[in-house]
């Protein structure tokens, strides 16, 4: 077989390349871990002679501890890497990395002379060759830690069910392991692979014996009971999230369900032929939620229970606009806190994977321009009532406002409750308790007050902030997102200034360049609403006036974009709705 391949390559290269193009290529999904190597000095017999010495047993081969000094550091933001620009610098989180020369705890027998002799050969010494190569190379050399981070990110993005990645950095004879997951990076201190050869051998043996889960492949057996029927399903291989090195890693896609390929369910031979086909009525969602946050399913269920109890006959104004969850579960076995707890480092910020099957939803782009205002008001009403029921969504965005088709028509749905909060229904507690993540949401749709506030400023998330997000979604719909490319880049303050400048430059009587066809009549009242809203919120932000009531903010929107009238039997004064203190249940 080998000889045939050689003959094919040497004698028929065109035919070989044609066949090669049809072969299964090796992708990042096939790689279990990566190595990053750097050679800056040449080992000589002085270094290798140490292999004959007795290994220092004071160094633990399991934990890497030496004299009570751990070789592991908790993750923190990458602040020491200079010159790295763009989004990577914003998301890259890596633990402090000791330089090899600083790892005194791993170097039990110092070299007699660690200095590298300079070659006197001006024509071909290894050092001279290295310098020449560096001078001729036009490629910028990234710091090794950054390159390891890029390898880790490639592995994390290679498959939808990738839970973590491992990258090994070998600098000369100094080795460190980096573990990347959605919480950040854990990096070991360097070990000397010569002085501590048993550690290297142990590591190699362990890597050979790692199962698929330890290699970062979750291998979930996806099945659920939907309407009393067991459903086995899969997720398309190309369903990849736009992952950073940290975050929720959300994925939303149409699952592939098992079903017969022949209309009758039987093949010509009489056997059932199982195939995978996109589901016609289900929607799959996966995210790595923070363990301190409430489960999304629990929040939605609580919202439905409160709506039924407190709204009575008007509960449909909330229930019709919440996701219809068919199945949900979390996998605490893959919590990012487990490895940190095992290693004795802080597990604050641990995340666990949670996935759901929901009734299939459609993009907001499927709504006709003539219907968009009416549909948007249903979302405003649902959102407003949820706040009165002490359910705060806190992540209203264009992608989270979707459409559900039913036998009774199409309903706008607030889809994402990952960042939502349940507030106790007591008079003294009107807003979510501060837990360090009040500035939540998607930048392009966040309220200006949240974007422009100082990083250390205490901001209570309010109903008005989510109402403003709905307005930004409407602006995105009209402009088709063309004006919002810069609304997603940079810091919160950067995006806030860009969006504020956009408001200052719009003209109510002049259509934007990329407006959606059919929204011509909508643009003028929308532009006036956005401008008036900004002026009101800036007054609040600069403490020129008190907070406007939720009712006053809704009425501001209604003044330019009137809420469509409903049939008389469905009309009620929902803006005036409040839960009376004496009606609050004990469990709420």
TrEMBL record:
Residues 117-126 have a biased composition (Polar residues). It holds the Pfam family Pkinase_fungal. It comes from the Eukaryota. Residues 95-140 are annotated as: Disordered. Residues 376-477 form the Fungal-type protein kinase domain. This is Fungal-type protein kinase domain-containing protein. It comes from Candolleomyces eurysporus.
